[in-house]
Amino acid sequence: MLELLIFLPFIGAFIAGCMPDGSRNRPFAAAATATALALALAISRFGDVAAHEVLRTDYEWLPAFGLDLVLRMDGLAWVFTIMVLGIGLLVLLYARYYMSPRDPVARFFAYMLTFMGAMLGVVLSGNLIQLVVFWELTSLASFLLIGYWQSRNDARRGARMAFTVTTTGGLCLLAGALVLGHIVGSYDLDAVLSAGERIRAHDLYLTALVLVVLGALTKSAQFPFHFWLPHAMAAPTPVSAYLHSATMVKAGVFLLIRLWPALSGTEAWTWLVGGAGVCTLLIGSFFAIFQHDMKGLLAYSTISHLGLITVLMSIGTPLSVVAAVFHTMNHAIFKASLFMAVGIIDHETGTRDMRLLRGLRRAMPYTAALAIVASAAMAGVPLLNGFLSKEMFFAETTLVGGTEDWWMSYAAVAMGVFSVAYSMRFISVFFGPLATDLPHHPHEPPRWMRFPVECLVVLCIAVGILPDLVVGDVLAVAAHSVLGPNMPEYDLGIWHGFNLPLAMSIVALLGGLLFYIVLRRSFALAERDRVPVLHRFKGAQAYENTLLALYGASAWLLRRTGTLRLQPQLLVLMAAMVAIPLLLVRPLPSFSMPGLADIDILFAMLWLIGAACAVGAAWQAKYHRLVALVLAGGVGVVVSLTFLWLSAPDLALTQLMVETVTTVLILLGLRWLPPRLPPAGLAPRVPRSTWLRRARDGIIAAAGGLGLAAATYALLSSTPPKTISDFYLLRALPEGGGANVVNVLLVDFRGFDTMGEITVLSAVALTVYALLRRFRPAPESVAIPVQQASDVDPAATQAPAVQARSGYLMVPAVYLRFLLPFMGMIAVYFFMRGHNLPGGGFVAGLIFATALIVQYMVAGTDWVESHLRLRPHRWIGFGLLTACLTGLGAWLFGYPFLTSHTAHLDLPLLGEIHVPSAFVFDLGVFLVVVGTTMLILVALAHQSLRSHRMPPGATRHTMPPTKEIA
Question: Cα(752)–Cα(788) distance, rounded to whole angstroms?
């Protein structure tokens, strides 16, 4: 059930993303359906969490390292799940009317559902490492959403800033999770939460605390990392409403509440978390007063209210935890409604500038009423939900410092004064005469666009009047999951008599009203363009200066130590490879050299030939590329023969086919490189410094090669330790269903590795294809080579297709076309036998790709593609899909991903046949290998069809032949 809660948003994101961009209804329907189903599923589990049960779903992944996939739902996770899904559903409905059909709406809903799924992953994770993964996924999704209007510079800047700050905090959180796992001995959340005493007594407690808190503070935009959140207001308003109320910034608060049992209760926790919280709530509320953008005001108010929750978590009493959870819920309700109200105003008037807006209650009475009620809840007005949790906050601050130190209470009252002042500034746009110079004539929005705001404002009122009836049970369930047996007694009643918290509330309300009046009348609030006193402290500017300093330092370092030339880079690499082992390995390993009687003369001669080919390839590489390529191919053949000599036919066959395909592909690529020929006439005199440099490079290269040879020989000649070879040898046939251990190892025991390898191979092929599509050869490479530009040779004027049809290549072409089906049968043969004899999908794919390559080489691109519809992209896609479906099929039967199963079929004439599921996986490997090879081949072959660098009306055969270049 829990996995379905996370999967549903991602499924909805995929479906919505596949919709056409011009449509709003279809992607909205897909997103809303997935969210509604997940919400209904979550609501149905309230009975379980109300009984204080912890719902868990475990999937083994790497149990030896404590890395299992664990989904966990208790009361706190349930409340956050309802917030994420419930407010998310309302925001999706609102976005349906807010977004313009001209926007890529399908992509927007896909991003929103991804954001929702990532946040649910954070909330429901039962493993710390898994939590960090989803944590960073929320940063990625928010980056896409904040930068949704990518043509706007402020959107790109805000997205980069948010992503940089939050992902840096995510790295700190990862380090903190690793430290906690080291202390506890497990990354399981239940184990961490139950080990609070051990964690706090450990020497690494402070390290873990600082790292985890840094992750939470950066995510929740707490001081000194608060600057990124106002810049995130460049996102569409539905994104802002969702980000501020139920996701992203609430993730940091959730982390502090979740890990409160394990990390709280120390002086370090109080000062670190409380100090950041107090600074945040004061700075955020003060900055909010002087904003002119309505979204900017709400952004700083969010910073302030999150600081309030952070302070409550730092106080450390059980009742402060209850108050923190309560205010988290209340803030989500009124802040989502306020952002959507601002979006309505912006949508219907064309501006959010409070210096221009006034008298909107005359043109938008319903929206004005809703926004005023929600802002009153934000200010803490009685009979609204914000009043209750803020009064609990005031009550808890009076406990800090006892009866002598009231600094926390003073800060709380100051924050209350500021919050009333900025709430008054917010609602001022609804009073006075109606503005006449607005971009659009204001009017009420569509009925269903206002509906989400109405639902949330009704909740503000219902919770404020009947708190125990509306949220009492939910709050108790959430708080109990954090506090357990330490759950305090509390009363959610509206009236508790005349006491100090009530007096603080009254002072905040009256003081805030008076402060706003003074600012407006005496300090020209609407005309101020900067924040008094604090305008010099600009977090965003400090962030930009830090990035500029890092860029400058990296540029300086690259200038001093880096180079764009490959040769110096290789020199440093080889020198380090030689020097580091000599400096670090002590004592140097000793090994005995074999005697002459132990050396096989034929094998030694084989390797001498290979060494000669390698040296010759290096010697000829500069001016004679074709010769160097042939010699390098000779090295590959020697390696293949070596594998065969050492009784490794699978490796020999694979190496031989890889060598064949890569040699042909490199040969096709060489055609488009500019010629590099030695200068004619007398050879120029080489300076002495050049000879010294070459000697140095030769010595280092020889030392590196000899060092690798010595290390390899020492390893092979030493007594082998106990290996796992016997494990595979004994289990290949009974458990893998095949006698060929190498193939069973690749497609069964280590099928996940092979899955990753073919995925990487596909990505590389697609990258090469994309790069070659934009590649344009140098002008001197466009003309045909000088060897083919003969006026006497009739083939010089014939296209490859003509040569293959009626020219001198007709006989080889016919022969190779006749050979194609036979090579296909050979590929099928090696594919079918691969599970028991040398062969398999990889080798078969290379054989079939070679059969296709020779068709291109002889008949040319035009002829082959007019007779064969290859579509390499589909081969790659179907191959990856086949391999994935094989693994998912094991999941359907309750086995781990890619678990192999062998079916025994009794067929007429053929008898009993063993058909392992790994056979289907190997088919996916075959398809990917053929597709990737052909994709690169097609990219190279299509270069011959382009003439972008040729003069108009010219062809490669009419252009002059390539000249020698000195």
Answer: 49
**Tokens 């890569």 label which residue?**
662
Beta carbons of 192 and 259 less than 8 angstroms apart: yes
Owner of token pair 């020697």: 638
Single pTM value for the model: 0.77
CB 737 within 8 A of CB 914: yes
Rounded-to-integer distance, Cα 840 and Cα 830, Å: 6
Whole-angstrom distance, CA of residue 520 vs CA of residue 534: 19
Q: Which amino acid is at 548?
A: L
Confidence of residue 944 (pLDDT cuts 50, 70, 90): low
Query: Shortest CA distance to 347 belongs to which of 101, 146, 97?
Result: 97
Q: Which residue has the tokens 């730092």?
A: 314
The pLDDT tens digits for 219-270 are: 999 999 999 999 999 999 999 999 999 888 999 999 999 999 999 989 999 9
Buried b (16+ CB within 10 A) or exposed e, 477-499: bbbbbbbeeebeebebeeeeeee
Q: Which of 146, 119, 149, 124 is nearest to 135 (CA)?
A: 119
Provide the residue count of the chain.
Answer: 966
Please report which residue ranges of 523-600 form alpha helices under DSSP H.
Answer: 539-561, 566-584
| Neighbouring residues of 789: CB distance < 8 A, sequence distance ≥ 6 | 783, 796, 960, 961
Ramachandran region, residue 304 (left: φ > 0; alpha: ψ -120 to 50; beta: rest): alpha
Structure tokens belonging to residue 510: 């009256």
- pLDDT score recorded for residue 947: 45
- Sign of the C-alpha dihedral, residues 818, 823, 828, 829? positive
Token digits for 944? 């011959």
Measured between alpha carbons, how far is residue 628 from residues 22, 198, 613, 625, 947 in Å? 55, 65, 9, 5, 29
Token output for 693:
């440099």
pLDDT at 957 over 50: no
Burial degree of 526 (CB within 10 A; 0-12, 13-18, 19+):
middle
pLDDT of residue 949: 42
Residue 425 near residue 289, CB atoms below 8 Å: yes
Contact, 150 vs 235, CB < 8 A? no
Q: Is the dihedral of CA 791, 795, 796, 799 positive or negative?
A: positive
| Sequential DSSP letters for 922-957 | HHHHHHHHHHHHHHHHHHHHGGGG--TTSPTT--TT
Round to whole Å and give the CA distance between 42 and 66.
28
For 648, half-sphere exposure in the C-beta direction (CA atoms, 13 angstrom radius) is: 12
DSSP 8-state class, residue 436: S
Question: Is residue 252 within 8 Å of 305, Cβ to Cβ?
Answer: no
- Residue 774 is given by DSSP the state S
3-state helix, strand, coil in the chain (%, to 5): 70, 5, 25
966 Cβ contact partners less than 8 Å away, ≥ 6 residues apart? 677, 679, 680
| DSSP codes, 624-678 | -HHHHHHHHHHHHHHHHHHHHHTT-HHHHHHHHHHHHHHHHHHHHHHTTSPP--P
Q: Which two tokens stand for residue 712?
A: 């390899």
CA distance 164 to 709: 45
Q: Which of 171, 173, 375, 137 is nearest to 247 (CA)?
A: 137
> Among 925, 914, 921, which Cα is nearest to 733's?
914
Cα 72 to Cα 440: distance, rounded to the nearest angstrom: 49
Q: Which of 247, 256, 253 is CA-nearest to residue 138?
A: 247
Q: Which long-range contacts (CB under 8 A, 24 or more apart) does 702-711 make?
A: 703/574, 703/578, 704/574, 704/577, 704/578, 707/577, 707/578, 707/581, 708/577, 711/581
Angle, helices 318-349/447-465, rounded to nearest 10 degrees:
150
